[in-house]
Amino acid sequence: MKIGVMEPGIFLYWIPLGSGGTGFVAMNGRIYEAIKARLARRPPMHLYHTALEVRLPEGRFIVETMWPSPSGDPNSRGVVAGAPVFARWLSLTRVFRYEVRCWRDGVLPDSGDAVGGPRLVSQDLETGRRLLELTNTVPGLVWGRDESDVGDMWNSNSVISWLLVRSGVPMESITPPHGGRAPGWEAGLFVASLARPETLEIQDF
After folding, report:
1. Residue range of the domain that includes 153
2. Structure pTM?
3. Are 34 and 73 in contact (CB under 8 A)?
4. How many independent structural domains does the chain possess?
5. What is the pLDDT of residues 65-105, one digit of tens each?
């Protein structure tokens, strides 16, 4: 459902993996999905990266997770937290850390490629405000690892699904575009459902 630019609410973007890049991410995504599909004995599916736009009377915010962390001032792009990629010891190097952004008036690269455009998932203003407050409490799990033993790796999609669940957004009707999937989505749902999520490690950027 496409909504006017100034309509308040929480909007979810399903962006094809690797959109707007050099082709490296898209190529690796296709290889990864081909392997997963062969192991599961199913046809390959389109892969998606997710991001959120929260529109409130007090401002517009982009919520997204990026890796690798670029150089420059993290505050200039709304970074609120960060954690390791692949292994904790690698996080000593900036390029092996991911960052969680809650960026007021921020830019969402490749938003124009999102399938179906911005999709409204909640119009409740308090839910939107709660989601923004939760961005700096995202569990600092290692990107690309299944530390929760749920059968799905933690990544940028995990952060988005975790935030939606913990902020109280109904999830039953939120699914990827037809013929696609978002690796990491299920990991976020599982971790968000844990009775005591505060026991998970959280790392400030």
Report:
1. 9-199
2. 0.88
3. no
4. 1
5. 998 888 889 999 999 999 999 999 988 888 999 999 999 99
